[in-house]
Amino acid sequence: MIVLVLNCGSSSIKYQLIDIDSNSSALLAKGLVERIGLPEGDLTHKPAGKEKYELHMPIPDHTTGISLVLKALTDPQHGVIKELSQIRAVGHRVAHGGEYFKGSCIVDEQAKEHIRSLFDIAPLHNPANLEGVLSIEKVLPGVPQVTVFDTSFHQTIPATNYLYALPMEYYEKYRVRKYGFHGTSHKYVAKVGAKLAGIDFHNSKIITCHIGNGGSVTAILNGKSYDTSMGFSPLDGLVMGTRCGNVDASAITFIGEKEGMSYSEINAMMNKRSGVLGLTGISSDMRDIDAAYEAGNERAIIARDMYYTRVKKFVGEYAAEMGGVDLLIFTGGVGENSYEMRSWVCSNMEFMGIRIDETVNRASRGVDAILSTPDSRVKVATIATNEELVIATDTYELTKDLK
């Protein structure tokens, strides 16, 4: 079955076309549409076994962008399928499923309404995600669609971990609670990592670290999410590229009052001007922070040490919560590629049974590998995440028997 996977942002569309069945999968093409709604838009299309194709033109909306993607996929020169009827289903990444969705689902009117009802909680993501669904209805009418939610995997977190110690009325009225994100990635790498390490996914204590420009750490107990570092929004938890992570709320209200900031200005400060960007004034990209670190930039040294240390704190916290850990996994852009970060997090952790082979750690970049030494009581691995494959798999399983 050929499945189109879409990840629609406010001004972008990431896509992959995957040929999948119950035993195997093959990537046919992938690409990116950017600058939607701006005077000049961009399409970068990468078909398997063919030259990359680029298009630059105004792309006023997501429907136009998806139409250009479909045209590229069927083009005689750089396409990978002959006709659109070969696309049997479309899978969408949706950021927030609230308490409605404990798993992926086939799109119907109720699903769309639930996604729409969460716009207030996820204003930057859910509207764009739903726009992708509505656009497919226009350009591929009748093709079944599936939504896969970042939050679904975390719906198993117990109330003791998902509730905040705020007046209960705010949970009852507005469902203010921890939801967690990156769930698709955490679930995927935990399953792959458990198989690689020879551990039973459903009878294990696993900690997964999805570390990139955005990042989160998750405790997975016997195959189910037990706790996670992101909260009501993706702002909570780790130090990130532009997000502050854990912070005393009184510090925020103090700054807001002193600076005369509106709620929207405070929100923008925490989400877009903080993290390593705010600490250094250099960049939100850890590659730039690494370069400044090596050059001896004092603020970069502090920022990177904070970034790494926050990950380490959550590893210790979740090991304590679960009563130990069998497997520690690193994934994401930084998690898969930065041996320095992995080394920092695992250093001086022998008391927890963590020992890594630094030679293997330094050589492992963007590949699946066991990093721990043979005598390490805790297995440590780096696993390349593949959220698109998870979306394609869920889409296949939910639609394979539809007529």
Attribute tags:
globular, 15 helices, eight-stranded mixed beta sheet, alpha/beta
Characterize the structure shown.
The chain contains 15 helices and 14 strands. The strands form two sheets. The protein has an eight-stranded mixed β-sheet, with helices on both faces. A six-stranded mixed β-sheet has the order 11-10-9-12-14-13, sandwiched between helices. The longest helix is centred in the last third of the chain and has 25 residues, at 298-322. The chain is α/β, with parallel strands linked by helices and 403 residues long. It has helices at 62-74, 109-117, 126-139, 159-162, 168-174, 183-197, 249-259, 263-272, 275-280, 286-294, 298-322, 332-337, 339-346, 358-363, 387-399; strands at residues 2-8, 13-20, 25-34, 41-47, 53-57, 87-94, 105-106, 145-149, 205-211, 215-221, 224-228, 327-331, 369-370, 379-382.
Q: What is the overall pLDDT average?
A: 96
User: What is the total tally of β strands?
Assistant: 14
In what order do the strands lie side by side in the largest sheet?
A: 5-4-3-2-1-6-8-7
Poorly predicted residue ranges: none
Beta-strand level of the residues, as a percent range? 15-25%
| DSSP helix fraction | 25-40%
What series of H and E elements makes up the topology? EEEEEHEEHHEHHHEEEHHHHHEHHHEEH
The whole-angstrom Rg is: 22 Å
What gross morphology would you assign?
globular
Number of helices: 15
Terminus-to-terminus distance: 13 Å
| Content-based structural category | alpha/beta
Biggest sheet descriptor: 8 strands, mixed
